[in-house]
TrEMBL record:
Domain of life assignment: Bacteria
Name of the featured protein: Membrane protein
Lineage, top ranks: Bacteria, Bacillati, Actinomycetota, Actinomycetes, Mycobacteriales
Keyword Transmembrane helix: yes
Keywords associated with the record: Membrane, Transmembrane, Transmembrane helix
Keyword Transmembrane helix listed: yes
Annotated TM spans: 35-55, 89-109, 116-135, 209-232, 244-275, 295-316, 323-345, 365-388, 400-417, 452-469
Organism for this UniProt entry: Mycolicibacterium madagascariense
Length: 472
């Protein structure tokens, strides 16, 4: 009589474990690894929040609190905001959206037709972001975000003569001049200001319209991620990622900040590049991808790092054909700005001067070089931390598995940005163009565990948004 493995294990425990035991030991070990990844992420976040209260003069968010005001710039470090538990009428809305997404999100993502999946993911992300913003109230949480004199829309009147503004742009970046740009305009290339100038010219001026547009564009990035994965023949992983993208903690900063617009522009640049990598109409799609990615570098100097994920997409697709169109599109944007009067390298040199004149000079590298990752984890959630061990799977990376390579590429951009020393603090907002893609990593976790990890994401976002009054 043939002895089944279950019989062997039951009657002779001294014998080696059979196939049945290995079938459950493997998943159990993986689950433990996921839990350890999340725990390590939680420890990093906790350390980033606790270390500022040790009052160490070196490892501190701000070296000279008397000059800048510790409460204004470091009260909730590593996040930019203030410790202030609060509720709002957005609270029940956010809770309902979170419960619905956790309960039905994974099943719906598997069954919905593709276009319906894209639409529902975007609408959920939009509702989630708006509900989180409404926890702070309509005015404080949404409508007045762009009303500050430090925000980009405040400088729109200075662009009445766009040509003159572009020619003078780099000169007006350093501080302590009578006509210096405000901190947000000075910290970006002129493309960021021109977006709001264009909105004003078509009748959508003012802080409320700026908030609406930034939220719409920023949340659309979740669709760009799904389109990218499907174009790279990872449609199944796109469906698994959809609920995590829709319920991303990063939504706290997408509604509302100018970086949400940057996130959407470069996100769709990557998506079009992925489509161009296997489409019959590669040339026009590649040119459009290059134009968006090129324009991204005129929205934020840091978007020059998008070359890393762009190369990753081409590696996954195993083609360099779209590269010609991408370069042509990016060069067209660069030529337009240069002929218009702005030279990118002059602007970059000037912004480094302005960076040293502001609070960044008193934000020590010793704290922010690692605490930045704490703020990033607040934006991507502990489920992303749990998935990192699965992301760094050498066999998958060697095989150029799409989601693995994309997440690693964006993690590399984060590493470069962090080590540069030009991303000290506020990275929960500044790194949104990178974070939104990292949020897809939990798709690699076992589908049976997705509801649990979605709940972790939702609880984390709700806790941050209700315990901290974020500046953005």
């Amino acid at each position: 009589m043939t002895v089944l493995p279950t019989d062997v294990d039951r009657h002779d425990p001294a014998r080696p474990a059979g196939p049945v035991r290995r079938r459950w030991l493997g998943p159990l070990a993986d689950a433990r690894r996921d839990a350890v990844g999340a725990l390590l992420g939680a420890v990093l976040v906790a350390a980033a929040f606790l270390v500022p209260h040790l009052h160490d003069d070196t490892v501190t968010p701000v070296v000279d609190p008397d000059r800048w005001g510790y409460y204004d710039f470091a009260d909730a470090a590593p996040l930019f905001g203030w410790r202030l538990p609060h509720l709002g009428w957005g609270t029940p809305c956010a809770v309902v959206i979170a419960i619905a997404a956790v309960t039905w999100g994974p099943a719906l993502a598997r069954r919905l037709p593709w276009r319906a999946l894209l639409a529902s993911t975007w609408l959920t992300a939009l509702g989630w972001a708006f509900a989180l913003a409404m926890v702070d109230g309509w005015d404080r949480g949404f409508a007045s975000k762009f009303r500050s004199p430090d925000e980009i829309p405040h400088e729109v009147p200075a662009f009445a003569d766009v040509s003159r503004a572009l020619h003078e742009f780099a000169r007006r970046v350093p501080d302590h001049q009578p006509d210096s740009w405000n901190v947000q305009v000075a910290g970006h290339p002129p493309g960021a200001a021109l977006v709001f100038v264009a909105l004003d010219r078509i009748g959508l001026g003012g802080p409320t319209w700026a908030a609406i547009v930034s939220t719409l564009v920023g949340t659309s990035t979740v669709v760009a991620v799904l389109v990218t994965l499907r174009a790279l023949r990872a449609a199944d992983l796109a469906r698994r990622a959809a609920p995590f993208l829709a319920l991303a903690p990063a939504a706290i900063w997408i509604a509302v900040s100018a970086d949400a617009i940057i996130t959407g522009v470069v996100g769709w640049g990557v998506a079009l590049l992925a489509v161009a990598s296997n489409a019959a109409t590669r040339w026009p799609t590649a040119v459009a991808a290059g134009a968006l990615l090129g324009f991204g570098t005129y929205l934020s100097y840091g978007m020059i790092l998008m070359v890393v994920p762009a190369v990753g997409v081409l590696l996954i697709a195993r083609t360099a054909t779209p590269l010609y169109g991408v370069v042509a599109g990016a060069l067209a944007v660069a030529v337009a700005f240069t002929l218009g009067g702005f030279w990118w390298l002059d602007g970059y040199a000037a912004v480094k001067v302005r960076y040293g004149q502001g609070v960044a000079a008193d934000r020590p590298y010793a704290y922010w070089v690692w605490a930045n990752y704490g703020s990033l984890l607040c934006a991507v959630g502990l489920a992303s931390s749990a998935a990192l061990a699965r992301v760094f799977s050498w066999p998958k990376l060697r095989a150029l598995a799409p989601l693995h390579v994309i997440v690693v590429a964006f993690l590399l951009t984060v590493l470069i940005a962090d080590l540069s020393g030009l991303s000290k603090a506020e990275t929960e907002r500044i790194w949104l163009p990178f974070a939104t893609w990292i949020v897809a990593a939990p798709a690699l976790l076992p589908p049976a565990h997705h509801r649990f990890w979605l709940a972790v994401q939702a609880v984390g976002a709700l806790a941050i948004n209700h315990l901290i009054l974020t500046n953005w």
